[in-house]
Amino acid sequence: MSAIEPKAAIMMTPKQIPMGLPLPAAMGREDFFVTPANAQALTTVEGWPNWPQGKLVLTGPEGAGKTHLAHLWATEAAGQVLPARAVLLGDPDALIARTKHIALEDAEALVGLPAAEEALFHLHNMILAAQGRLLITAKTPPARWALGLPDLASRLQATAVVALAPPDDALLEAVLVKLFADRQLQVTPSLIAYLLPRMERSLAAAQTLVADLDRRALAGRRPVTRRLAAEVLDEESGGLAE
User: Which of 1, 7, 171, 217 has an alpha carbon within 20 to 30 A of 191's alpha carbon?
Assistant: First the structure.
């Protein structure tokens, strides 16, 4: 994948009034911006035919890009992406009826739920027996989970883990541009440059910031400008923003 050029993607009409119904977040390959923060994770996920034992755990903080990567993998592998709690909705046979390649998101939600842990254990075994692939996403690696089912714990702790690193400046800039575009909000490069050093350094914070700007702009029928951004940043920081 080529290096990102986020500024080139910014539409240059600062007086647009934002629409009330933003488009769904773009999840295509062209929308995944590669920087040193995520390059290793992307390479590992793309190497899915050669995952050790046919499985991988992808970790990272909220909003780091785990869902995006999971969907890219599912598209390439003809797999399906499911919330982890889907293991409680049916037997493993039903879950792999359509494809033996499955991504389970937010697997930590199953920890401490005996029925869910048991279901995940059986799904894990069935996918590997069928020579399928299992991608699990979570905030932390399985070694840090307090799993109650020893057999599941041993299998997940033996699974290869790749982590998405905290976002660097290039990734934050590109993600801001993408989030504004997803909501059909047209902003200037100078606004992005204003936001970067003042916002919380996480992709989850970028999502919140753009959503708040969209909400405030719509409510006040205002374009997204530096003045509006200063108001929203001040609001998010409880009045502590510069």
Answer: 1
Q: Which of 40, 42, 60, 41 is CA-nearest to residue 141?
A: 60
Question: In this predicted model, what pLDDT tens digit does every residue of 121-172 receive, in sequence order?
Answer: 999 999 999 999 999 999 999 999 999 999 999 999 999 999 998 888 888 9
CA–CA distance from 146 to each of 110, 128, 155 (Å)?
10, 23, 14
Distance CA 137, CA 32 (A): 17
Measured CA to CA in angstroms, residue 196 lies from 44, 128, 170, 191, 214 at distances of: 29, 43, 10, 9, 17
Beta bridge partners of 135: 56, 103
Largest separation between any pair of C-alpha atoms in the chain: 59
Mean pLDDT of 96-111: 93
Handedness of CA 23, 166, 35, 109 (dihedral sign): negative
Both tokens of 186, joined, read: 């047209």
- Partners of 134 in beta bridges: 55, 102
Cα-based distances in Å from 24 to 48, 174, 200: 27, 17, 23
Residue 56, CA atoms < 13 Å, CB-side half-sphere: 25
| Structure token pair of residue 58 | 């992808």
Calpha distance 146→151 (Å, rounded): 13
Residue 30: band (very low, low, confident or very high) from pLDDT cuts 50, 70, 90: low
pTM above 0.70, yes or no: yes
Run of H or E including 172: helix 169-182
